[in-house]
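Table 4 source record.
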Amino acid sequence: MNGLYALKPWYADRLSGVRASLVRREVSPDTLTAAGVVSAAGAAAALAWLPAPLAALPVALLLAARLAFANLDGALARETGRTTRRGSVLNELGDRVADLVVLAGFLALAPLWLVTVAGLAATLPSWVSLAGAAAGSPRRNGGPVGKTERCLLVVVAAASGWAVPVLAVIAAGSLLTAALRLAGLWRELA
């Protein structure tokens, strides 16, 4: 059930040179969390303001940066010994804000109710994972429509103009992902 999340170790390895450079420059992990949110906002703006398929390249590049920053902030904190509880909270909040900001780009392209439903559904898998972690379970990631898949779906919308169908897939897929994570968590905690 890991979906594209299974590629995370490979992706983290590709970012090792960037991570080493950030360590040498003593960049704060919190700065990277903020950069991820800014990248998400840029992707949302490109999605909202540029027509398909012209929006596809900037949206893809900005979402790739958003995913890179999401990978690098925690890795940098661990590598430099700067992991803190505050940083963990900031990381989680930054991820949720970035998710919602990206989906806000659809407000110019789809009905408010659908954007709202997709936004709420997209946060559910993470809330399930966080609740499980609070109960002592290992953090659950991935799934049919996790963070990486949502980013890919947004690029599909930017390339095709299929905002409504993509939002429907994000909403339904996120609900399925949350349900699968919850079922696994429920079995584990029984």
